[in-house]
Amino acid sequence: MIQIAPSILSADFANLGEEVKKVEDAGADLLHIDVMDGHFVPNLTIGPPVISHLKGRTSLPFDVHLMIENPENYIDEYIKAGAQILTVHIEASVHVHRLLSYIRSKGVIPGVALNPGTPLQNLEYILDQAGMVLIMSVNPGFGGQAFIPQMKEKIKALKNMMKSMNLAIPVEVDGGINEKNAKEIAEAGADILVAGSAIYNAPDPSQVIRHMKEK
What we know:
alpha/beta; TIM Barrel; 8 helices; 32% helix; globular
């Protein structure tokens, strides 16, 4: 079953509790929380205090995506805030293997993310430490961008790499996903689809989530 993870990057932050409840009621499987530091990506979003305040407001697992430099300095804060999946970028840390192992040791699912231009070969010696792989299908930093078509081949290649290594790790895809392209992205091998503006900008978010799952 394909899972849908709405990104609160496109939510109304003045009513964040209600926005989270809206997608939970609509059938979302995870809550995707984008953290940006203005250095690794050209945008600033939220930090641990906001995530912590969402605890108890929803039963959705917190899928926290760190788009920050030196993520190893902040891991404990995000775990304490409530992250159940914690994803770091392979481009942002020198010692990714150690970082993924540390996240797992804390009882949290360790995710590793790749920007569109980052080769899959960079995963070769750390893939067995990952609990999830996130393929960015836009250049990170802003919501509302168009899906980069070449990422479908990258998803397929990642699945083949996993198969050759006898690994079965969920593949999450983030960026430009909507009702029109959800099916082809899932067919390429995605297990989790992240969608922000396609869900939160729709008149009826529940209908979008339902249609994406149906397709």
